[in-house]
Design goal:
The chain has a 7-stranded mixed β-sheet, sandwiched between helices. The protein is α/β, with parallel strands linked by helices. Helix 10 packs parallel to helix 11. The N and C termini lie far apart (41 Å). It folds into 2 domains: 182 residues, Rossmann fold, CATH 3.40.50.150; 94 residues, Orthogonal Bundle (DNA polymerase, domain 1), CATH 1.10.150. 37% of the residues lie in helices and 14% in strands. The radius of gyration is 20 Å and the shape is globular.
């Protein structure tokens, strides 16, 4: 199965500041591009663990004694690393969102380019699909989803229209596109559709909750001086990463001691990195990527 070029490959792996004898984790294995680059920089003593819940990613397992692919959601990173006898690591790489492969496989239901059943599950083991959300959620739940995850100003009207159209079930991508067609301005049809699909996809896969749960485990997992190297693709993901690196929290501000000092687990390394124009020309899906790097400063 074809997987596209990994985004910001050199920059993301450079951000890990790799110790050749260290232990590293790639929480979004996919086609294995980032993992292969990490392995190329490890000695015989180095180890790499990778996570991917998508069954299709199992076809890309790397034949290398230093490599272990864990077929699980990375929200369980600490549990499954401990299962493999690992309590501390030297770096963690994450490339969030949907893989190019998932977008390009029509039957997965992620892309507005193809007609398929409403699915959008990143793992076939998941119980709730896009069909369940579109046909089963209340109008208020749909409104909140489109407002928060799609950042759509007309979320209430979209939700009401979907609910009013459910006398006959909405089964496919084309049927959903027809239902919401009156909300798609000619000059921005794909942009609005993408936001609608993004909202449903985030809900189905609990994407933001997964990132939060994952990030909260990283201070305990990383050795002092260990690195986080994380790629986000939309503002909701990037906001979580940025806030967590800054304060170790997602809301509010960390407490200060008597002297006004705050205790945070990470310090950011350098500025946010975005792809070059050359990379975007080669891989259009890189256009919205944002890379943030952080270093563990205490244990």
């Amino acid at each position: 199965m074809e997987y596209h070029n990994p985004v910001l490959l050199k920059e993301t792996v450079d951000g890990l500041n790799i110790n050749p004898d260290g232990v590293y984790v790639d929480v979004t294995f996919g086609g294995g591009g980032h993992s292969k680059e990490i392995l190329s920089r490890l000695s015989e003593k180095g180890r790499l663990f990778a996570f991917d819940q998508d069954e299709d990613a199992l076809n890309n397992v790397i034949d290398d004694e230093r490599f272990t692919l864990i077929h699980e959601n990375f929200r369980f990173i600490k549990r499954f690393l401990r299962f493999h006898g690992v309590r501390k690591v030297d770096g963690i790489l994450g490339d969030f969102g949907v893989s190019s492969h998932q977008f390009d496989e029509a039957g997965r239901g992620f892309s507005i380019r193809f007609d398929a059943e409403l699915d959008m599950r990143m793992s076939k083991k998941m119980k709730t699909s896009a069909y369940d959300v579109v046909n089963g959620y209340s109008e208020d739940a749909l409104r909140r989803m489109f407002s928060v995850y799609g950042e759509l100003t007309n979320a209430k009207a979209i939700a009401a229209t979907i609910v009013a159209s459910r006398e006959e079930k909405i089964n496919t991508i084309e049927e959903l596109k027809t239902v919401v067609s009156k909300f798609l301005p000619q000059h921005a049809e794909h942009k609005v559709l993408a936001k609608i699909f993004q909202a449903i996809r985030i809900e189905v896969n609990e994407e933001l909750l997964v990132i939060e749960e994952f990030l909260l485990q990283t201070p305990e997992l990383l050795n002092k001086g260990g690195r986080l190297s994380l790629i986000s693709y939309h503002s909701l993901e990037d906001r979580l990463v940025k806030r967590f690196i800054r304060s170790g929290m997602f809301e509010g501000e960390p407490e200060k001691d008597f002297y006004g000092n705050i205790s945070v687990p990470f310090k950011k390394k350098g500025k946010m990195i975005v792809p070059s124009l050359e990379e975007i020309k080669i891989n259009n899906r890189a256009r919205s990527a944002k890379l943030r790097i952080a270093e563990r400063i205490e244990n």
